[in-house]
Write a structure and sequence with these properties.
Layout (H helix, E strand, L loop, with lengths): L1 E2 L5 E3 L35 H4 L5 H4 L7 E8 L8 H16 L20 H19 L20 E2 L2 E2 L4 H13 L4 H18 L1 H6 L10 E6 L5 E6 L6 H8 L2 H19 L12 E6 L9 H17 L4 E7 L3 H10 L5 H4 L2 E3 L5 H8 L30 E5 L3 E9 L3 E9 L4 E9 L6 E10 L7 E7 L3 E9 L5 E11 L1
Parallel strand pairs: 1-16, 7-8, 8-9, 9-10
Antiparallel strand pairs: 2-15, 3-12, 4-5, 6-7, 11-18, 12-17, 13-16, 13-18, 14-15, 14-17
Helix pairs in contact: 4-5, 4-6, 5-6, 9-10
C-alpha cells in the first residue's frame, strides 16, 4: 500500500492581497468557498488559527474520539473514460452475456448448539452415540481383534484431535456425520467407521506433526474471518499458470501424492483450530479465485483435484460453511452445467459465483473489508508485510458512490491528535482529495491532498497521516463522474499527541 506524502497548502478565506486575486476555483457543499490556493513555506500558523486551542486544564480532560458524517452531492468532475474504463465495461458486458449465477439459493447454517436440535435429531444423535459406544467397547474401529487381556478397556478413537464420546465436542463431531447422511443413523455410522479406517491408513495424526516442504503458500492460505466468525480459506488456482510450479507439483504420480499430503495436512491443522464446543464455529468459509485458472485441459491438475475432492467428501463432512467462486471465467459455467445436476439443493445453496467486476462487492457481503486481502478489494495486507497503523481488528466503513455523485466523509476532530487513514475505491476511475478545515472561522484550510484523478492501474490503497493541532474536521472527498456505481472503503485511527 502506498503512503501519500501530504501536500501542505494553506488557504485563508480572508486577508488575501487585494491585487491579482483570482475568482473562486470550486465551491464545496461541505466547506466555505476558497478563493485560491497559495503555496507557503513551513511557518508557524497565524495567531487567528491559535485562538481555537483549548486552555491547559481542558487538554488533560478525557479522550474524545472523532465523529464521522457522510454526505452525497452531485459530481463536479467531467467524465473522462479512457481505455481502462472501456475495458472494464466490456468485461462487465461479457459477464452479463455469460450469465454467471451469483447465488444458487438461500442457505442458513445449522446450529451447532446441542440445545437447538429437534427431538428427532436428538434421537438420531443418541442412537449414533450408542452405536459408537458399542464399537469402542468391542474395538470395532480397529482392524485388530479385541485382545483378551484388556480388562474391558474401551478403545480410544480421536478425530481431529477430539476423543469420541469424551465430552460435548464429540457430539458436534458426530452431528457432522449425521448431517452428511441426512440423519440416517446406520449410514452415518458406516461413514464414521470408514473415516476412522482411512485416517489410520493415511496416518493422519503423524502427518499433522510432519514438516512437509512445498511452494504452495500462495496457492492455499487462511486469512481473516467472515462476518459470522468463520475462518476464511483462499484457493488461488491462477498460481498454477506458473509452469515451474505446475510441473513441480503435478508432473508425476509421486509429486501428486506429495501435493495431496500437503493439502490434507493444511486442512487438518486448520480444522484443529476450530471451536467444536456446543455453539462454536466449526466450519470454514472458502474463497476460490478462478482468475487465470489453467482450466479443465490440464489432466494432471484435473486428476489431483478429483482425488482430493473425493477424499474431502468421504472423510471431512460438513466443514464448508460457504463456497465463493470469484473472478469466474466463462468456461467454468460449462463445468458447472455438467456437475450441477448431480448436486443436492443443499449443496448448491452453499455456492456463490461472481465475475471479475463483482468479486470484491460479493466478498464484502460475507467478509468485512478489513478482513479481505488487498488483492481482492479489501484493506488487509499479508502478515509478512508491514502495516504498523492498522490490523485486522481495525474495522472499515463502506459507502456506495452512485454514478455522477460526489461522496464526502467528514471526520470531526475534538482534540490534538495525529489522524491516520486508509482509503480505496474498487477500480478507482474517480477523483480524490483530502483537506483539513479548522473550526476557527478565519483560520487556514490545509489541503492535504490536491484533487487527484485515480486510475484503475494506480496503487489500490492510499494511506495518509495528518497532525491536528486545533479543533476542526478532515474532509475526504471522492468524486465519481462515471456511469457506474463505485464501492468506497475507508478506516482511520487516532493517535493522541
Amino acid at each position: 500500500m502506498a503512503e501519500e506524502q501530504p501536500t501542505t497548502t494553506l488557504v485563508t478565506p480572508e486577508k488575501l492581497p487585494s491585487s491579482d486575486v483570482t475568482p473562486p476555483v470550486e465551491s464545496e457543499p461541505t466547506q466555505e468557498v476558497l478563493p485560491r490556493e497559495t503555496e507557503t513555506p513551513e511557518t508557524n500558523p497565524p495567531e487567528s488559527a491559535e485562538t481555537t486551542t483549548k486552555p491547559e486544564e481542558e487538554t488533560t480532560a478525557e479522550h474524545h474520539p472523532p465523529t464521522v458524517t457522510e454526505t452525497e452531492t452531485a459530481s463536479t468532475e467531467k467524465q473522462e473514460l479512457g481505455d481502462e474504463s472501456s475495458s472494464s465495461q466490456k468485461e462487465l458486458a461479457e459477464e452479463k452475456k455469460s450469465m454467471i449465477p451469483q447465488n444458487l439459493g438461500s442457505f442458513k447454517e445449522e446450529s451447532s448448539k446441542l440445545s437447538d436440535l429437534s427431538n428427532s435429531e436428538k434421537k438420531s444423535l443418541d442412537e449414533l452415540k450408542h452405536l459408537v459406544r458399542d464399537a469402542l467397547d468391542n474395538h470395532q474401529f480397529s482392524s485388530i481383534p479385541k485382545p483378551e487381556d484388556t480388562n474391558n478397556t474401551p478403545e480410544e478413537v480421536k478425530i481431529w484431535g477430539i476423543p469420541l464420546l469424551e465430552d460435548d465436542r464429540s457430539d458436534v463431531v458426530l452431528l457432522k456425520f449425521l448431517r452428511a447422511r441426512d440423519f440416517k443413523v446406520k449410514d452415518s455410522f458406516a461413514m464414521l467407521k470408514n473415516t476412522v479406517k482411512w485416517r489410520r491408513e493415511f496416518k493422519i495424526d503423524e502427518l499433522v506433526e510432519e514438516e512437509l516442504v512445498d511452494d504452495l503458500d500462495k496457492v492455499v492460505f487462511m486469512h481473516g474471518h467472515d462476518r459470522e466468525g468463520h475462518p476464511v480459506c483462499y484457493n488461488v488456482y491462477g498460481e498454477f499458470q506458473n509452469k515451474e510450479l505446475y510441473n513441480k507439483t503435478f508432473s508425476d504420480e509421486e509429486k501428486r501424492k506429495h501435493f495431496l499430503r500437503t493439502r490434507i495436512q493444511f486442512l487438518e491443522r486448520s480444522i484443529r483450530k476450530l471451536d467444536f464446543s456446543s455453539g462454536g464455529v466449526s466450519t470454514i468459509f472458502q474463497v476460490n479465485d478462478m482468475k487465470n485458472s489453467p482450466g479443465l485441459g490440464k489432466k494432471e491438475l484435473r486428476s489431483a483435484t478429483k482425488q482430493a475432492v473425493e477424499l474431502l467428501q468421504d472423510n471431512y463432512p460438513e466443514f464448508v460453511f460457504k463456497q465463493a467462486f470469484i473472478n469466474v471465467p466463462w468456461w467454468y459455467l460449462v463445468f458447472y452445467t455438467v456437475i450441477g445436476p448431480f448436486m443436492t439443493p443443499r449443496s448448491k445453496s452453499k455456492l456463490v459465483f461472481a465475475g471479475p467486476s463483482r468479486s470484491a462487492e460479493t466478498l464484502f457481503k460475507y467478509i468485512s473489508p478489513e478482513q479481505v486481502p488487498v488483492q481482492y478489494g479489501g484493506l488487509s495486507v499479508d502478515p509478512c508485510d508491514c502495516n504498523p497503523d492498522f490490523s485486522l481488528e481495525d474495522s472499515a466503513s463502506e459507502i456506495t458512490v452512485k454514478p455522477g455523485t460526489k461522496q464526502t466523509v467528514e471526520i470531526i476532530i475534538y482534540e490534538k491528535c495525529e489522524l491516520v487513514w486508509e482509503i480505496r475505491v474498487i477500480g478507482w476511475e474517480v477523483s480524490y482529495k483530502a483537506e483539513f478545515v479548522p473550526e476557527e472561522k478565519d483560520a487556514y484550510t490545509v489541503v492535504i491532498q490536491k484533487p487527484r484523478k485515480m486510475r484503475p492501474s494506480d496503487e489500490p490503497v492510499l494511506t495518509h497521516s495528518f497532525k491536528v493541532n486545533e479543533l476542526g474536521k478532515v474532509l475526504l472527498t471522492v468524486d465519481n463522474p462515471t456511469s457506474k456505481k463505485k464501492k468506497l472503503v475507508y478506516r482511520f485511527n487516532v493517535k493522541p499527541l
